[in-house]
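Shipment paperwork, digital attachment
Item: protein structure file
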Amino acid sequence: MTSLTQKVALVTGAARGIGKAIALRLANDGAAVVVNYSGSLQQAQETVSLIENNGGRAVPIQADVGKVADVRRLFDTTFATFGQLDILVNNAGMMFTKPVAEVSEEEFDRIFTVNVKGTFFCCQEAAKRMTDGGRIINFSSSTTALMLPGYAAYVATKGAVEQFSHVLAKELGPRGITVNVVSPGPTDTELFSKGKTEEQKQTFARMAALGRLGTPEDIAAVVAMLVGPDAGWVTGQNLRTNGGLI
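Attachment content:
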């Protein structure tokens, strides 16, 4: 038996990038996986197919986590399909970089809707329905500890996620549910690479003590550790998974 046999995991934003790597890793560790996606059924189905071809169980479920009705439907469908929820990974998110003076109200509202509201209300549904002894992983970013121009709106959302995660850990602790935050550093994904030159990417790589960019699999390994049976005494923590960036 693998470490997550008979567990059910819901991974938001699991059609590509870090979310896809997490879904694949948790399935490899034995969990049945809900592959949430917002826009691309084709990409989500590719993730599901990879899991099924390796002998695992997975299902794609569309939902925009920025809409509470979609979040409730996502959880309803998860329970209708698998009958339980043991692991929630709130990976779905968005980012942009702009100076404070240039951020529009619409951009501000959208990034908070996806990154903060989406994570908050997914946590709310998990708090109501998750199996005792479950695991919640929320995503922040190592940029919250850096003063990078253009990141103000993004790090504001991630700072909010970090703070309410600490509170949720206390609220759910009596049920044996752990709540932790994973904060990746620069990770070689499509989202990270968008708009960056190779020189810029290598500049970020040199900032890390280990001298390279992270990979989605690096992040997935840390998530797998935190949701596994050996991390039951770890909760309310923020793991900066960045290769020694800070």
